[in-house]
Amino acid sequence: MPSDSSGAKVTASRRGVMLVLSSPSGAGKTTLSKAILQREADLALSVSVTTRKPRAGEADGVDYHFCSVAEFTALRDRGGLLEWAEVHGNYYGTPAADVMERLQRGEDVLFDIDWQGARQLAARAPDDTVRVFILPPSAAILAQRLIGRQQDGAEVIERRLAGAAAEIERWAEYDYVLVNEVLSESVDRLSAILAAERVRISRQTSVPDM
After folding, report:
1. Taking the chain, what is the end-to-end CA distance rounded to the nearest angstrom?
2. Which of 4, 60, 84, 160 has its CA 20 to 30 A from that of 50?
3. Would you call 167 helix, strand, or coil by DSSP?
4. CA dist 12 to 6, 94, 118, 139, 200, Å?
5. What is the model's pTM?
6. What is the rounded distance in angstroms from the CA atom of residue 34 to the CA atom of residue 78?
7. Is the pLDDT of residue 3 over 60?
8. 135 vs 157, residue with greater confidence
């Protein structure tokens, strides 16, 4: 890091990054998200707002911001969501105010969302959004991972695999693609992407006087 004439370290000020991860179910996106959050102390997970009921062990404001349908639609209609979607009869979305305040302070925010949400974010805030698509090493390994989780029956797994093929076709919309074969290597590559995006010229708001 450079120093001024007095020997003190000098740094540039910058706007934060919205780091978006998307993948088909079973590609390891959630595991990768947890790992990069542990490594990058200055990276915070975006907490979505949802109309679904809390599940056992979930805490309001930590896992999700839980709200009524009326509250959600009011927030959406006044432009308070960066992105939103209806999934299995429930609404999910990203509150804009908290994220934008974080970016303004130079803080980075991680998003674990699908391609539809990523597309909305990129349309709403193209200069702030960095999209990374996570791919499994192969369709066979993806199937093995879904079966190995022991969370779903054969019919659900088959449906997820069919959906994965359609999701994977969206990879070209992203800024980066990452094949998640070895977790530690994937975390290294994702950390490198974040490091590069943090110093992108367009993201700097000021530079120090030298």
Report:
1. 13
2. 160
3. helix
4. 17, 29, 28, 44, 11
5. 0.81
6. 32
7. no
8. 135
| Separation between Cα atoms, residue 49 and residue 160, nearest integer Å | 24
Residue range 68-79: mean pLDDT, rounded? 97
pLDDT band at 96 (very low <50, low <70, confident <90, very high): very high
Measured torsion, CA atoms of residues 55, 56, 59, 62, in degrees rounded to the nearest 10: -70
- Angle in degrees, 0-180, between the axes of helices 154-168 and 139-148, rounded to the nearest 10: 140
Amino acid type, 54: P
Please state the φ and ψ torsions of residue 181, each to the nearest 5 degrees: -100, -50
Q: Which residues contact 198 (CB under 8 A, 6 or more apart)?
A: 14, 17, 108
pLDDT, position 12: 59
